[in-house]
């Protein structure tokens, strides 16, 4: 490790890079093939990695426009991808902001305010957090089915219902932000209390500004989680124009109507923005992931 | 802190109390409304919310609780309540056969009826703008104008009133063209009789199929059969024992659990699915952890160049939304026209049946899940590896330990304790990894000879999901019963994790 012969070192370096490159080729294969498929003629995977007769048909359809083939036939977009994307983003942002508000305020209280039974509450939250909402799908379906008879706004096929369910997934985020608040010096809030600040004012003017980077992390994590949800959305949402991306995308690879090429273009179009956001945020995300998890 | 509370509440308490009072009133009204709409459970939930809200935001002594009330309320309403409700449903026969409430089921049966042929009378149609009136010459009645054409036809009711015959009537063949709209029409005579279209040229009055008797039984008009409501099975039963659908939802005690444990067609697949769920979750954690840790160790090597580039490329699978990657793999693994089989055939001359062979399907699932999950482990491992003091490793190396030995005796023991809770959480996550299974294989290939749809790659969660929401049948009650069993496993895991986390916390505090 400290004293190493140059020949040994070179051999090791070649080995390491070789391993990395072979591994990366395997790992990145799906991405490369999807890009290739999205430009390939037709909806079946017959062709080379670099398409011989590249076509923009799948991309034009993914953007929601009709495509006129060279022989004059007009192809209509099979599904409203952009609408699904908009639904996903709308639901993700609203639920994400809701989660952020609830989680930040709760985390502050759990970290700083003396509340009777706080330890028990925290343990309870930690236990409940392990129960994924997807396990209670039967009940959620039954509840919103019944609520729909009173008001369609709260029933099945409603985005409000979906947002409400998503917002309940705050427990994990409370823990993450609480871990961050616990690391802030208590001298700060003592100083604020001496100056006559109420706990609310301490939160609003001291802790909230400090927590902005952490809140960004939690928002991105929550948002990505909501975008990725399939089970809840697939149970609650039925009509095609209300679907989120995750539910809608599945329609492409139906056994009876297999739209591989159209799917590839739609997948890149919808996946790219989220991927870019994630890559920009990843440094902070990692810190958030391990911080929240370890600090008790 | 407590002194500042009192100063702040004095000045601003009146508007706040007014606001709290108003909100509470709105919530209470909503609770009452729900109760009146025969939704007592939701009414009770809102009532509890209203009380909690009033007490916590109204009284000053619960100042601290105000901060956590929204979060706790959301968790209780949308996680704890559904969990409890699922368990309750596990003790009922809620399914596509027993979907309604008792009142609704009775209503449905009573509203069934057929046209009585003895009351048939001819009709004619008179056009009036876009709408039409129905003329019944025998009884001298004319209906209100109704819409009989258009795209979205819906059942319509219209009243009849005595009138003179309209001046112009449609030809019979024009009237026949309106039969789709006529079929959805119900006319009400001045004395309350209901009349429907019973043939191309006739209308007839409706006689209900069932009539309710004072003791709660129903009597069938056609053959005078008496149907008795059976509240233990949730069906109206004829004397010969036949059940008349629709049924209603009733509690059946441990019936679902008995079914699970005694019916061979459920117990066998359930057992194999349980084993596979555990194997799948454990293997996923093991594979992603091993791969992620290996990559992290290589990336930490001081002599390696292009680290940032490698890292960015390596976490790409984590950055792409999982549902997209899973669907991409579904296409790539496709047996007939997937890229993977094309390449395998080109190089090795084989075309594995990824979706129809149970073992291959399981291997495919593990490959995809490892691909999806290793970057997370790699990122975590990189963070923890940085925390291992460099001089410990140097000292060991100076003593002549090989790098493998240094890794297993110095590095690994130091990163394991903080890693453990995350590994347990990862196990729990994969134990219920519905998205992967539903989007990749939907549980298939199916296990032959089962009563309910069960597949080789089904995990417990996807098994219950399909039981409840598959097209072949919606057995909510049975799904609830199996979910309760999953709850027990999850509860054990989450308790284990709590203990682990406490240990990590004490160690952290001790440092």
Describe this structure in a few short sentences.
Chain A has 296 residues and is mostly helical. Chain A has helices at residues 6-38, 57-62, 81-112, 118-129, 137-150, 159-167, 171-182, 186-194, 199-228, 231-236, 245-249, 260-294, and strands spanning 67-68, 74-75. The longest helix of chain B has 37 residues, at 264-300.
Structural class of chain B, by secondary structure, is: alpha+beta
Class computed from helices, strands and strand pairing of chain A: mainly alpha
Distance between the termini of chain B: 29 Å
Helical fraction of chain B equals: 55-70%
β-strand percent of chain A reads under 5%
The number of helices of chain A is 12
Low-confidence stretches of chain A: 292-296
Number of strands of chain A: 2
Under CATH, the topology of the largest domain in chain B is which? Answer: MetI-like fold
Assembly type: heterodimer
């Amino acid at each position: 490790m400290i004293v190493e012969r140059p020949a040994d070192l070179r051999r090791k370096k070649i080995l390491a890079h070789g391993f990395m490159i072979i591994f990366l080729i395997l790992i990145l294969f799906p991405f490369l093939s999807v890009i290739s498929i999205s430009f390939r003629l037709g909806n079946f995977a017959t062709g080379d990695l670099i398409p011989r007769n590249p076509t923009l048909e799948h991309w034009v359809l993914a953007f929601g426009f009709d495509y006129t083939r060279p022989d004059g036939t007009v192809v209509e977009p099979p599904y409203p991808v952009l609408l699904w994307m908009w639904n996903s983003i709308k639901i993700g942002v609203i639920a994400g902001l809701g989660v952020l508000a609830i989680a930040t305020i709760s985390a502050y209280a759990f970290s700083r305010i003396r509340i009777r039974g706080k330890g028990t509450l925290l343990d309870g939250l930690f236990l409940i957090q392990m129960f994924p909402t997807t396990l209670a799908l039967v009940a959620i379906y039954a509840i919103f089915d019944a609520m729909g008879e009173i008001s369609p706004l709260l029933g099945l096929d409603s985005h409000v219902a979906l947002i409400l369910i998503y917002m309940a997934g705050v427990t994990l985020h409370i823990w993450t932000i609480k871990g961050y608040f616990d690391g802030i010096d208590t001298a700060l809030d003592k100083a604020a209390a001496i100056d006559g600040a109420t706990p609310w004012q301490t939160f609003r003017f001291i802790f909230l500004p400090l927590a902005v980077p952490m809140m960004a992390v939690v928002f991105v994590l929550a948002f990505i989680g909501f975008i990725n949800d399939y089970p809840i959305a697939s149970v609650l949402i039925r009509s095609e124009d209300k679907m989120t991306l995750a539910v809608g995308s599945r329609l492409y690879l139906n056994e009876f109507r297999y739209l591989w090429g159209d799917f590839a273009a739609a997948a890149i179009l919808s996946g790219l923005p989220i991927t870019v956001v994630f890559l920009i945020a990843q440094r902070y995300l990692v810190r958030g992931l391990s911080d929240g998890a370890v600090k008790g | 802190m407590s002194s500042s509370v009192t100063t702040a509440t004095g000045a601003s308490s009146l508007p706040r109390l007014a606001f709290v009072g108003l909100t509470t009133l709105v919530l209470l009204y909503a609770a009452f409304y729900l109760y009146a709409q025969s939704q007592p459970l939701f009414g009770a939930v809102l009532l509890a919310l209203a009380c909690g809200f009033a007490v916590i935001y109204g009284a000053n002594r619960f100042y601290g609780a105000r901060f956590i009330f929204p979060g706790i309320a959301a968790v209780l309403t949308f996680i704890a309540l559904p969990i409890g409700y699922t368990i309750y449903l596990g003790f009922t026969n809620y399914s596509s056969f027993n979907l309604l409430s008792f009142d609704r089921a009775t209503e449905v049966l009573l509203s069934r009826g057929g046209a009585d042929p003895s009351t048939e009378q001819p009709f004619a149609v008179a056009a009036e703008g876009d709408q039409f009136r129905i003329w019944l010459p025998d009884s001298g009645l004319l209906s209100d104008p109704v819409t009989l054409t258009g795209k979205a036809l819906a059942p319509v009711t219209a009243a009849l009133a005595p009138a003179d015959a309209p001046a112009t009537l449609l030809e019979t063949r024009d009237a026949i063209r309106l039969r789709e709209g006529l079929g959805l029409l119900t006319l009400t005579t001045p004395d309350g009789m209901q009349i429907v279209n019973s043939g191309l040229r006739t209308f007839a009055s409706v006689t209900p199929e069932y009539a309710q008797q004072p003791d709660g039984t129903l009597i069938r008009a056609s053959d005078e059969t008496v149907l008795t409501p059976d509240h233990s099975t949730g069906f109206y039963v004829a004397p010969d024992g036949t059940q008349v659908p629709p049924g209603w939802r009733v509690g059946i005690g441990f019936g679902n659990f008995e079914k699970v444990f005694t019916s061979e067609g459920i117990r066998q697949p359930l057992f194999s699915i349980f084993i596979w769920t555990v194997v799948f979750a454990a293997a996923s954690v093991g594979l992603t952890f091993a791969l992620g840790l290996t990559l992290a160790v290589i990336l930490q090597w001081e002599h390696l160049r292009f680290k940032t580039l490698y890292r960015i490329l390596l976490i790409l699978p984590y950055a792409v939304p999982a549902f997209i990657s899973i669907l991409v793999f579904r296409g790539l693994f496709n047996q007939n026209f997937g890229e993977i089989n094309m390449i395998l055939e080109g190089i090795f001359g084989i075309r594995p049946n990824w979706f129809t062979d149970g073992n291959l399907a399981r291997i495919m699932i593990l490959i995809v899940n490892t691909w999806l999950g290793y970057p997370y482990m790699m990122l975590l491992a990189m963070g923890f590896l940085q925390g291992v003091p460099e001089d410990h490793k140097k000292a060991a190396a100076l003593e002549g330990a090989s790098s493998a030995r240094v890794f297993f005796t110095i590095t690994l023991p130091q990163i394991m304790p903080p890693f453990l809770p995350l590994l347990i959480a990862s196990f729990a996550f994969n134990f219920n990894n519905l998205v992967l299974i539903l989007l990749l294989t939907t549980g298939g290939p199916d296990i032959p000879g089962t009563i309910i749809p069960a597949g080789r790659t089904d995990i417990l969660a996807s098994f219950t999901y399909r039981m409840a929401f598959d097209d072949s049948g919606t057995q909510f009650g049975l799904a609830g019963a199996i979910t309760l069993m999953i709850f027990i496993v999850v509860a054990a895991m989450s308790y284990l994790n709590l203990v682990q986390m406490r240990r990590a916390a004490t160690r952290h505090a001790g440092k």
